[in-house]
Amino acid sequence: MKRRSLTTVREESPPKSLCSDVTIYVMVTTTAVLSYVNSLNGDFVHDDIPAIVTNGDVVGSNSLKQLFLDDYWGMPMADANSHKSYRPLTTLSFRTYQMCRCRNVILKLRTSPKMKRRSLTTVREESPPKSLCSDVTIYVMVTTTAVLSYVNSLNGDFVHDDIPAIVTNGDVVGSNSLKQLFLDDYWGMPMADANSHKSYRPLTTLSF
C-alpha cells in the first residue's frame, strides 16, 4: 500500500495593516510631543549662551583647528579655567548648521519643481559591488576621527554642572520615579520650580 505524500502548505504572512502603521506613527509623535512640550517657549539660557550663542567655535570667528583644541564652551583645553568638557563633534555640528543653514536648504530642495521632476524620472542604476577594502577604510576613518576627537578627555571626570546633572541627579541615579523624570529639568529640578534651569531634556536623562 503506497503512502500518500503530504502536500506542503505555504503559509502566507498576514497583509500589513494601515491601521498598525498609523498607530506606530501616532505613538512616536505623541511621545515626542509629550516629552518636549514644556520647552516650546524656551530659549538659550545659562550655559547655553556661552556654549552656542557667543562661542567663537560655533559662530565661526575661531578657526576649525582651534575648535578641536577648545572645550565645549570655546575655551582652550590647556587653560586652567577650562571646563574640561570636550565635545568637538557636537560643537562642529552646531557650527555646520550655523554655516550651511541646513533647514533652509532642505526646505528649498523639497519645494523645488526641478527636484520633483528629477525624482519622478530617475532611472534605477545598478550599484557597483561593495568592496571589503572600502568598508574597512570607512570604519578606520570613523574610528580614527573619534579617537583623535576625544583623546584629550580620556583622563577627565565629571566636573562643574555635570555633577548635579548626572552624579547627584535623582532622575539619573534612580531615587526619583520615572514620572518625575519627565517633570524635571536636565538638572533634576521640577520645571515648575522658579529656580529651574528650564533646560528640558528628558530623553537624554533617560539614556543616562
UniProtKB/TrEMBL annotation:
Lineage, uppermost ranks: Eukaryota, Metazoa, Ecdysozoa, Arthropoda, Hexapoda
InterPro entries reported in the protein's UniProt record: TMTC_O-mannosyl-trnsfr (IPR052943)
UniProt organism field: Heliothis virescens (Tobacco budworm moth)
Protein name per UniProt: Uncharacterized protein
